[in-house]
Backbone:
């Protein structure tokens, strides 16, 4: 029953590591164990009076076991905290990228709307001017109103 429940939750073993985080956990565990084993063993060999080869073996084995125990406890915590921090950083980056992209799209849509509005206004000005010209011609009156300015070329 318990194995089925653990499989459903995607968790493995005593430290309750998710299956996807297991490689990271093992890497962190190995790094911590090796680092602590080497540093603690060297420190013990330098500071203790060791008289023979057998004592060196006892010191090395003892330090490796202590380092393994510390790593067993620290690795799940470090793995999960680093996953949360890296996940938060990744999410923040993706949100910022989406925000920048949305702003760029919004600016482009705004530009297009502005261009279309400018074209409509210019067209309306020309229609109004042309209508007044035709009305003046129909009445036989002189028409000396200058035409509206031509539309400005669109920039890319």
Residues:
């Amino acid at each position: 029953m318990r194995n089925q429940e653990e499989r459903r939750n995607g968790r493995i073993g005593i430290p309750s590591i998710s299956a996807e985080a297991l490689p990271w956990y093992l890497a962190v565990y190995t790094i911590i164990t090796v680092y602590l084993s080497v540093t603690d063993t060297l420190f013990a060999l330098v500071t203790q009076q060791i008289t023979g080869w057998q004592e060196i073996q006892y010191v090395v084995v003892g330090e490796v076991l202590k380092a393994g125990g510390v790593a067993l406890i620290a690795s799940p915590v470090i793995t999960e905290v680093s996953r949360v921090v890296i996940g938060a950083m990744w999410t923040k980056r993706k949100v910022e990228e989406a925000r920048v992209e949305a702003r760029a799209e919004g600016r482009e849509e705004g530009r297009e709307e502005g261009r279309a509005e400018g074209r409509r206004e210019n067209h309306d000005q020309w229609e109004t001017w042309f209508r007044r010209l035709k009305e003046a011609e129909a009445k036989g009156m002189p028409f000396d109103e200058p035409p509206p300015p031509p539309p400005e070329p669109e920039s890319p």
Observations:
- The beta strands are 11-12, 17-18.
- The chain has one domain: 2-112.
